[in-house]
Specification:
The protein contains five helices and two strands, in the order ααββααα. It has about 100 residues and is mainly alpha-helical.
Length: about 100
């Protein structure tokens, strides 16, 4: 229920379909076991789960996405060096506020 509530909260904002569709294209749905490090995913499902209901839905979505991607970098195997992508990922997330 929380996931659907958050999904619709974002979708109903002006331009709200953009962050939802872009994030799926960007990092996936979050339902695949292949989209996990240490059992923790980084897709849309995880972002919707982590949204703060006290914030504006688009702000909550962007902040949750940032947190999920930071966790992905922390959980990534050392050899993957995913931290090199984090700045670019965060730049992309800023478009979700607009």
């Amino acid at each position: 229920e929380k996931i659907w509530r958050n999904f619709y909260a974002v979708a109903q904002t002006p331009g709200g379909a953009y962050p939802l569709v872009d994030y799926i294209n960007f990092k996936g749905e979050g339902t695949s076991e292949k989209e996990r490090y240490n059992g923790q995913g980084w897709g849309l499902l995880q972002v919707l789960t982590e949204m703060d209901p006290q914030l504006n839905p688009r702000t909550a979505f962007a902040k949750a996405a940032e947190s999920v991607l930071e966790r992905r970098v922390r959980n990534a195997p050392a050899g993957k060096n995913e931290g090199r992508w984090l700045t670019g990922w965060k730049n992309r997330l800023t478009t979700y506020f607009q």
